[in-house]
Amino acid sequence: MKTNKSIAIIGSLVALLGLNACSDSDDDDTDNVMNSVTEQTYRITVSNLTNGQPLTPIGVILHTPEFSAWETVEPVSTGLEMLAESGDPSQFLSESETEVIATASGATPFGPGSQQTISITIEATENLQLSLATMLANTNDAFTGITNWDISDLDVDDSKSVMPHVYDAGTEANTETATTMPGPAANGEGFNTDRTEDIDKVTIHPGVVTTDDGLTASALNESHRWLGSAAKIVITRTQ
Amino acid sequence: MKLNKLSTAIASAIVFGATMTTANAAQWDITVTNLTHGNYFTPLLLTAHDSGTHLFQAGEAASDAITAMAECGDLSGLQAGLPDNDTIVDPATGFLAPGTMTTTTIMTSDTNTSHLSVVAMILPTNDAFIGMDSQYIPSEAGTYTYYINGYDAGTEANDELLSTDSNYSCMPGEGGFMPGAPGRDADTGGLGVSNADTNTLVHIHRGILGDAAVTGDGASDLVNTIHRWQNPVAKIVVTVTP
Questions:
Q1: Residue B174 domain boundaries
Q2: ipTM over 0.90
Q3: Can you give the pLDDT at residue A196?
Q4: From CA B90, how far away is CA B119, in angstroms rounded?
Q5: Residue of chain B whose Cα is closest to the Cα of A218
Q6: Is the pLDDT of residue A18 over 50?
Q7: Closest approach of chain A CAs to the CA of B237, in angstroms?
Q8: Quick one: which of B240, B242, B239, B236 has its CA closest to B45?
Q9: Is B232 in contact with A214 (Cβ distance < 8 A)?
């Protein structure tokens, strides 16, 4: 069973690598037009600030203010449910609406103390906002990130950063059992829409309990805890 | 008792409506969101005031009125000391459940009314509350978002125990049990988590311990996969219309 799952994980990583090769979803027609006046390039770096939580490949959406990737205390989209339960950002990014200008994703999960960087080039756009999500892999459905982050105020070479909250997608009960979490501490199941035993609202995640704090069925130990934030996002406009 | 409180709320709403045409500085449309995954807020109190007013301050002792709010959800003491015009009580008409929000409006009564305070007890706890302490609200038109921490009033030991007496009456300042678990997801008969608060001043709440045990076993009557939280516990969004 575990071997099969490993193959599946590798398979999805290959798929993600393929996705990354053309991660800039900007219109192909503009690729040959090197007009620096009308293009904007943003470099986005996410640092993993946890002690024991790999972060899954980041999903990044550049959009105008009419779009939101999620709203607190509202249900998540199916794509964000999939990201928050399994780490796969593909459907989260493909749920693009007309307000979405470009999407991109990271290639691999990245562990505590490491970071992931993506650059996106788009045609000049006013009122530009960024949404980004990544799963804390050793959880049932915790994710961190930000939505509707205003980046329209960035001039070339400007940057800014944020340490976002950690959210509970509300789509899967926080059992912490080995069969229900996809990260390396458990190697269990990721996405499953049939699990409806949670509140179906985005809230601040209460954290993991772990076996070291009295939840005997948990596949986690104290090293997997976090407090407050799990990541830092830095965005720099380079063009 | 509940009917009396409702009547008071209706009466104050009428008074509030009557004062809307008098001189005021701004309209604040305020949304309070419970960001916790499994905790309830008792009826909220929101009040607009000048820069020198505080309902509570972190690092200082809780007043009797804050103690009653934090231990029992009782707002009467706080309400008695505040002007009706700038104060909203119980906008959600009862508990604010996990993952829900409520919206209300304050018409500030004069130009010195520049700060907002918001409090409510967090249930089930001994003396935890959400607290916005005298937050400056800009006078310029706009929408402003604030994230709020959970505080410990420092007035009651966090034993995390519920009474088995269905008629249990909460007495502020006298210790005792948590007044209730609105989600009906706690048990009874635990041994008790803590006998005393080391910090008896208002401080950042250390959160719920809970346990995985059923009735009559373990330290806590709370459940470690349901009743814990991390900050922030609430989001307050204020839209200002000058």
A1: 27-242
A2: no
A3: 62
A4: 11
A5: B225
A6: no
A7: 12
A8: B236
A9: no
Contact B225 A213 (CB under 8 A): no
pLDDT at A35 over 70: no
CATH of the domain at A204: 2.60.40.2130
Is A143 within a domain?
A: yes
- Interface test with chain B among A150, A208, A209, by most B beta carbons within 10 Å: A209
Q: Is residue A32 part of a domain?
A: no
Q: Considering only CB atoms, which chain A residues are within 8 Å of B101?
A: 73
Total of domains in chain A = 1
- Compute the CA torsion angle B170, B173, B177, B180 (nearest 10 deg): 50
Please confirm whether the linkage preceding B232 is cis (ω < 30° from 0).
yes
Q: For residue A225, give the nearest of A166, A162, A180 by alpha carbon.
A: A166
Q: Which residues of B touch A148 (CB under 8 A)?
A: none
In a domain, A87, yes or no: yes
When CB atoms are compared, the residue of B35, B101, B230 closest to A207 is B230
In degrees, to the nearest 5, what angle opens at C-alpha A209 toward C-alphas A204 and A214?
Answer: 155
Q: Which domain holds residue A13?
A: 2-24+37-237
Q: What is the predicted pLDDT for the residue at B12?
A: 43
| Assigned domain for B17 exists | no
**A110-141, pLDDT tens digit by residue?**
999 999 999 999 999 999 999 999 999 999 99
Give residue for tokens 């990201």: A83
The answer, yes or no, to whether residue B9 has pLDDT greater than 90, is no
Asked whether residue A29 is assigned to any structural domain, the reply reads no
> What count of CB pairs under 8 Å joins A to B?
68
Under an 8 A CB cutoff, do A205 and B212 touch?
Answer: no
CATH of the domain at B159: 2.60.40.2130
Nearest to A103 by CA among A78, A133, A74: A133
- Note whether residue B11 is domain-resident: no
Tens digit of pLDDT for each residue in B141-163? 999 999 999 999 999 999 999 99
